[in-house]
Amino acid sequence: MSYNLKYKNSIRKYHYFLLLSLIQKRKQISRAQLAKITQMSNTSVGKIVKQLIEDKLVIEVGKLKGVVGKSATLLEINPEGSYVIGINIDLNSAQIAIVTLNGEVIEQRNIVCDMKQKAENVLDQIVYSTLDIINRADPKVVEKIMAIGVSIPGPISWPDGEVLMVPQFHWKNVQVRAYLEQKLDFVVYVDNDVRAVLLAESLFGNMREYGNSVCLYIGSGVGSAVMINGEILRGHRNTLGEIGHITLDPHGAMCDCGRLGCLQTFICSSELEKQMQISIQEIYTDYHKGEYSAIRIIKRARDYLGIAISNIVSMYNPEAILLAGPMIQQFPELIDGVEDVSNEYVWYPLKDSFKIIKPKIGKNSSVIGASALVLNEYLRPTFETFK
Predict the structure, then answer these.
(1) What is the pLDDT of residues 209-253, one digit of tens each?
(2) Exposure of 283 by Cβ count < 10 A (0-12 exposed, 13-18 middle, 19+ buried)?
(3) Which CATH number fits domain 13-77: 1.10.10.10, 3.40.1710.10, 1.10.565.10, 3.40.630.30?
(4) What PANTHER family does the record tag this protein with (predicted)?
């Protein structure tokens, strides 16, 4: 069922996907601008753009304003030229959606998953729901589905798509990619959910203009993802960014990982709930009431978040840091003044060298992020990707 794009096995595929990637990232761009950026000839750009239009991946949308002489025609991605299935697997639930090339969800299904079952049973439930959403979709949409992207918390092998360990799910060494490809007959990409969020914001949201960036994700745990020159960094075992388990206090509270004083013991919701013995919603209610214990623990969380940001800035020197996740979305008070806190701790030459960014994508960020895993692979203009 996989939708195979033109040039997938031709000598011109590199430039084909290079131009497609540039058009996607720039939103609107002319042929002349593409030629200038890529140093390709106008003739070569014109031929490839013609093919992109014939493949219905790119459309012409108007004229470039403010230019002298003949005005240039602008190009943009055709959102209905192709589609991606995004699947996000989270604690006790999964979201499945068909997503356009501009990140719009056109069909969606939310299901409850009992993670006490075997991993195969959960995946079978996801397979059933995915097939159902495909069968109910317009056949013209289904024939244009490129691939499936799956985002899951925890360390994932790349590109094999094996879930190495997710303690919350009781999953270990689960071959998610291989299992879903066999059952669904689509190419499947599986990666960590924080990378998916950063990719989604880089493709469709508030991080489009930042090629050097970091996503710091705070929910029931803490994770991060790093992008340098527009490329996601992965590390030796695809676990680069597991900042939640950096030790900040070797005599601190016990983390779920079994070690003491990990960063996430100071700022994630599950740890704050454990330490206060009430829900995170109750903690914030008490915070707004002026209860001392709630104010103290939220202030401490903000301080350690600022320290984490200062360390990230020193390690990766990003232009921008995206603060995302349920804790940020539901309780924005957590990051009030955090930029000042981080600048207080950061190495002086890097003070004020970065921006704190909030996400643009809302409630569908999980499945849009999963679809972004696919788009990132298809739009990466490297020979290695398309060999």
Answers:
(1) 899 999 999 988 899 999 998 889 998 888 898 899 999 999 999
(2) buried
(3) 1.10.10.10
(4) BIFUNCTIONAL UDP-N-ACETYLGLUCOSAMINE 2-EPIMERASE_N-ACETYLMANNOSAMINE KINASE (PTHR18964:SF149), ROK (REPRESSOR, ORF, KINASE) FAMILY (PTHR18964)
